[in-house]
Amino acid sequence: MSAGEKAKAKTEQVVGKAVRKVAHAVGNETAAAKGAALEARGRARDIKERAKGSFRR
Question: How confident is the model at residue 33 (pLDDT cuts 50, 70, 90)?
Answer without folding.
Answer: very high
